[in-house]
UniProtKB/TrEMBL annotation:
It comes from Staphylococcus pasteuri_A. InterPro entries: DUF1462 (IPR009190), Thioredoxin-like_sf (IPR036249), YuzD-like_sp (IPR038218). It comes from the Bacteria. This is YuzD family protein. Transmembrane segments: none annotated.
């Protein structure tokens, strides 16, 4: 069984570039049952990081993603798996499942 650490970086406010997209928290909540159901052979560990509130005790890796979001290089919600970038902005099921199928 492969362990996969899934991190969703987000904020309470919907990303300005992601009009009509689900909130970061909704994406986090939707992602958990999706991955567990689609890939029961893997063990997922889920973490949500609010880019505006959860700024203490983060790894350098987490800080770098938050800085890139704040500098508008990336959008939120942003998803990583085992510290690898997966997708950002308007998240779609196909992006997530293809990443898991190709990498794990």
């Amino acid at each position: 069984m492969t362990k996969i650490s899934v991190v969703v970086y987000g904020a309470d406010i919907v990303c300005a570039s992601c009009v009509n997209a689900p909130t970061s928290k909704d994406t986090f909540d939707w992602l958990q049952p999706l991955l567990k159901r689609k890939f029961p052979q893997h063990q997922f560990e889920f973490t949500y990081i609010d880019i505006e509130k959860d700024t203490e005790n983060l790894t350098d890796h987490d800080q770098q993603f938050i800085e890139r979001i704040q500098e508008d290089e990336l959008f939120y919600p942003l998803i990583t798996m085992n510290d690898e970038y997966v997708a950002d902005g308007y998240i779609q099921t196909k992006q997530i499942t293809q990443f898991v199928e190709q990498h794990f």
